[in-house]
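Page 47, continued from p. 46.
Same chain as before, 121 aa.
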Amino acid sequence: QVQLQESGPGLVKPSQTLSLTCTVSGGSISTNYYYWNWIRQPPGKGLEWMGVITYSGSTYYSPSLKSRTSIFRDASKNQFTLQLSSVTPEDTAVYYCARDSPVVGGGYDYWGQGTQVTVQG
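Result:
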């Protein structure tokens, strides 16, 4: 059973960089052909895909967030990290990490429980 757990600060000040880590257990983030995603849901809005790091370490970002987003991994710790720079109150959301596989199909099969991040001064 794969489990994902987000961790990081719940409160970030405007203009700072938000950093969240997803720790994965029950499976390796380097296993072919799985992709490890960051997704967020602002209050009262739908899910927004932010970006992904693949089993091989390649990254892809949402065009709307690309200039502010970075995702990297520590394979030795089986973790991947999201950094979002220059945050504003509009970045307040529940942030999720989730796994999918374009090769295997079936959409997101495992999710973290989500972590609330609030941006305020």
